[in-house]
Amino acid sequence: MNDEGDHLTVETAREMDATDPLSDLRDRFYVPDGEVYMDGNSLGPFSVDAEAALEHVVDEWRELAIHGWTDADPDWFSYGERLGGRLAPMVGAEADEVVVANSTTVNIHTLVGTFYDPDRGEKIVVDSLDFPTDHYAIRAQLRQFGRDPDDALRVVESRDGRTIETEDVLAAIDEDVAMVFLPSVLYRSGQLLDVETITEAAHDAGALAGFDLAHSVGVVPHDLSSVGVDFAVWCHYKYLNAGPGAIAGLYVNERHFGVEPALAGWWGNDKATQFDMAMTYDPAHSAGAFQIGTIPILAAAPLDGTLDIVEDAGGVAALREKSLALTDYLIALVDDRLPECTVGTPRDAASRGGHVAVEHPAAYRISLALKERGVVVDFRPPNVVRIAPAPAYTGFEDVYRAVEHLREILDGEEYEQFDRQSGGVT
């Protein structure tokens, strides 16, 4: 080991864990025994808080039955709005600008379908590294407007296959653009985009700005309202640990309140008139209007519990501070111990989300070898092992151990025992 790497020892990792003010949070999670869990950017683990919240509503269902809609504590009727209010500080929004509802993809459909206006401009700006469901939904909505997606989508291409340059996004925005819809963090490389600059450029061109925050909510603070973002969507099963397929969230800036959603449903009706059962839709004057069907309480309750953890941590800002320390440490270890690998994630903290893309030609088989050793990561084509040291339950020694396992796998060429990628869940 060279002198520059002398601090990259297991003893130093343990010292950092010992002085970590958030280290006690780990005791609230059911991290699988014997595993180094580094896949929280795909699915966060179960927690005692999520379990308690879920058991609470199960007990209420048993004891109250239908009366739970009004008599539960908290009542189920306003569950989505109340959770939206709890989430609002995490994304820098007013309480009524956020609601818990639907799935991420459904929220993309309803928000893009609502706010896309061909009279404003035909084009929607996206990028070539987006998560596919975003493009699926946007293309479907463009077809609903009678537009050819191949013509109406303006795709910002990556220069390096990893990242998107802000200047390329800005160059794509002109008077023909109706909307910009981009991720806050790229799902493969972990690049954090400049939401504020992109939003300002969109507005200067007369376009709207929307974002998919799936890989940033819960690990990166946002300031959506003051930046002026028009709308945003996200999931809660990654860094917010609300469970597989947990109910999603959305944000709509208050200047758009009163617009009728493209996918109207009775749960988005104004609460005061919802049970009038009128055949004419009366949308809520809030983000709540974008709810569609009845809120699935059992799928929302775990989020209520996990938000306690975020608040007890001191908010997303505290989690972000630890996340950056963890990913800084991970990058340093890869540089020092894994010369065969490349870090595909921006090194600048201001341009980095919560995970690190470790690149290697045999990444798929390496990911399988890591899992065989109890190091849970995932693979993203063509050559990325995604390692996500989620700050609520991951320690610096965990990061050290993950890299040590990877070093041993490379030394022993253990990945050679696995078949090359043939599809399936990664």
TrEMBL record:
EC number: 3.7.1.3
GO cellular component entries: cytoplasm
The keyword DNA damage is annotated on this UniProt entry: no
GO BP of this protein: anthranilate metabolic process; L-kynurenine catabolic process; L-tryptophan catabolic process to kynurenine; NAD+ biosynthetic process
Pfam families given in the database record: KYNU_C
Keywords, comma-separated and alphabetical: Hydrolase, Pyridine nucleotide biosynthesis, Pyridoxal phosphate
SUPFAM superfamilies, sorted: PLP-dependent transferases
Substrates-to-products reaction catalysed: 3-hydroxy-L-kynurenine + H2O = 3-hydroxyanthranilate + L-alanine + H(+); L-kynurenine + H2O = anthranilate + L-alanine + H(+)
Family stated for the protein in its record: Belongs to the kynureninase family.
Main function: Catalyzes the cleavage of L-kynurenine (L-Kyn) and L-3-hydroxykynurenine (L-3OHKyn) into anthranilic acid (AA) and 3-hydroxyanthranilic acid (3-OHAA), respectively.
Full protein name: Kynureninase
Encoding gene (name): kynU
